[in-house]
Amino acid sequence: MDELFGTRVPQSPQAEQAVIGSMLIDPACIPIVLTDAKPEHFYQKANRDIFETILSMFNFGQTIDPVTIMDRMKERGVYQEGSTEAYIRELITITPTAANVTQYVAIIRDKSLQRDLGKVAGDITQMVNEGLGSADDMLESAERNIYALRRDRTIGGLKPISEIVQTVYNNLNRLAQEGETLPGLPTGLVDLDSRILGLNKGELVLIASRPGMGKTSIAMNIVMNAAKASGKAVAVFSLEMSREQLVSRILSGEARVDNKKLLKGNLSAEEWRKIVMAAAVVGATNILVDDNPTLSVADMNAQCRRVQNLGLVVVDYLQLMQSAGGKQNNAENRQQIVADMSRMLKIMAKELEVPVLCLSQLSRANEARSDKRPMLSDLRESGAIEQDADVVIGLYREGYYNKECEDPSAAEAIVLKNRKGETGTVYLRFLSEFTTYVSADRKHE
Questions:
Q1: Catalytic option among 40, 85, 163, 240
Q2: Active-site annotation holds for 270
Q3: 362 & 245 share domain
Q4: Is the pTM of this model over 0.85?
Q5: Which range of residues forms the domain containing residue 122?
């Protein structure tokens, strides 16, 4: 059909046949091919049917050879009497060697990407011609679709469970081989990690508290630990503090130097030495900071798509973000806008395949109770925030409300929601002079 309209469809029938032929000649090629090739990479239906059959048989641990493949194709209803057997014989004959199978796979992947790129370009042209939305909406949609292609994914669409099972199996196998006990990025707070299993890909993690409780402090602890432990990029969007204020806090916590002294520059020789060492450690990480106070989720998403090897996104904080449509003062509208933004943050986490850590303010509702520990219902302008989040952590310090309490540094990270496990309280310590949180069992001079 495309040829009738003078359109050349990017494809390589020879490479497709060579990939299938290599798997038929040498079964050892099959796991190598299945690591990089997918059914949608094959343009010719006959090749795609054979590949999907081999994939299905591999997932079920069945013996794979020309005879068993044809038998399985009959069960799947994709066997063509008189032609399929002859075609399989032809594939074995015309394939020059199975040794070059990785090059054959690279060719069909490239052609598939060209086809997908052409489709996205056509969709963009159609969207512009039909005037579907504003220019910003069109640009966001175009960027999202092109980013998905760069990540070798497509947005939406039904996917066979056999492929999903294989992905889950591969992840389990990797964890078992590497001996990892924590599937996600570590927060650096051991007891919290054991409770929420770290910060996992595609998750929206919410840390909520009253102003001044230390939510930015714990976020910066997590940022530094994740950046050092993973070696990946960490994108921080600070809508409240400037870049310099944020880095000053990070240096204070890393060097264990009083933050007030750091702000005044009144440092001893030993403290200067600590700051220099901390600056070297912080400078070696790949932490990226944007302090634009008018950012929307779409702006953040667009920036993150351009970051190589992204591991974590941190937003400080939710209620300060702008909607794509700008400011709206109506309280009811504002609640809906915040709910929409939390949903967009969850979508961003899934699209980027990284955890998104978002800070949020609690309303004053808890202060009217005798027990001022946070609850899910205390989330300010909550709307659907608690529904979108995979993990919700509320911070509480008795010393925040009672300056004369027995242990002003005692703190609690209350896991209010946890899709991966149990909720409950994790005990921490807040070192206010260093604006940092540590595990309760750790001792510091």
A1: 240
A2: no
A3: yes
A4: no
A5: 1-180
